From TrEMBL:
Transmembrane segments: none
Domain Tetracyclin repressor-like C-terminal group: 82-187
InterPro entries xrefs: Homeodomain-like_sf, TetR_C_31
Pfam families: TetR_C_31 (PF17940)
Coiled-coil segments: none
Name the record gives this protein: Tetracyclin repressor-like C-terminal group 31 domain-containing protein
Length: 188
C-alpha cells in the first residue's frame, strides 16, 4: 500500500512538472492531482526535495521500462545499424507522443532543477550512467565501431533532439531528419 501511494504521488508530481512546471509543484497541488487527502504528500515527502527525489526516481523507472520493452521487441531481431536506427526512431516518436509528452517536459524540468540541487544531480548522474550502459549495449549489439565513444554522443543527441521537439510544441518534423542526425552520430 505504501509503495502504491508513493507511486501515485510520484506520477502526480511528474504530471504537474509536465503541465505547469516546477513552480506549480507543491505538496497540495500533488494531493489534488493525485486525488488523495490533503496532507498525504507531506506524510510521504516531508520536503520539496523529497518530492523531487521521488519524482526523479519514478521518471527514471518509467523511461527504463520503455527501454526494456524496446529490448524485448528486438531480442530475436537481427541487429544492424539500420535496425538500431528504426528502434531509436520508434523510441523518440513514442516519447514525443501525446500520452508521454508531459512526462518528457517533466524530464527537462527535472534536469534544470538538478542543475541547482546537488542531491538531485547525483541521482540523475546515476541514472545517466545506466542509460549510457543501455546505449552502449545496443550499439555493440548493432556492431557499431567505437561504441564506447559513440554511446555518450548518442544519449546527448537524443536528449537534444527531444528538447528541441518539446520547444517546437509538437510541430511536425520529418522523421528523416531524426534518422539523419542519429545516423551521423552513430556512424561518426
Amino acid at each position: 500500500m505504501e509503495q502504491e501511494r508513493k507511486t501515485l504521488i510520484a506520477d502526480a508530481a511528474i504530471s504537474l512538472l509536465g503541465s505547469v512546471g516546477a513552480r506549480g509543484l507543491t505538496h497540495r497541488a500533488v494531493d489534488a492531482q493525485a486525488r488523495i487527502p490533503t496532507g498525504s504528500t507531506s506524510f510521504y515527502c516531508r520536503s520539496r526535495l523529497d518530492l523531487l527525489r521521488l519524482a526523479l526516481q519514478r521518471h527514471a523507472e518509467l523511461d527504463l521500462a520503455d527501454l526494456a520493452l524496446d529490448a524485448e521487441r528486438m531480442q530475436d531481431a537481427q541487429w544492424s545499424t539500420h535496425h538500431l536506427l528504426d528502434l531509436l526512431e520508434h523510441r523518440i516518436d513514442d516519447w514525443l507522443s501525446a500520452p508521454k509528452r508531459g512526462r518528457l517536459v517533466a524530464r527537462f524540468e527535472l534536469f534544470l532543477l538538478a542543475s541547482r540541487e546537488p542531491e538531485l544531480a547525483a541521482i540523475l548522474d546515476a541514472h545517466r550512467a545506466h542509460f549510457l550502459q543501455v546505449a552502449l549495449a545496443a550499439l555493440q549489439r548493432a556492431g557499431v565501431a567505437h561504441a564506447e565513444a559513440v554511446a555518450p554522443l548518442l544519449v546527448m543527441a537524443i536528449d537534444g533532439l527531444l528538447l528541441d521537439r518539446v520547444r517546437e510544441h509538437g510541430h511536425a518534423r520529418p522523421a528523416t531528419r531524426h534518422r539523419d542526425l542519429l545516423q551521423r552520430v552513430i556512424e561518426g
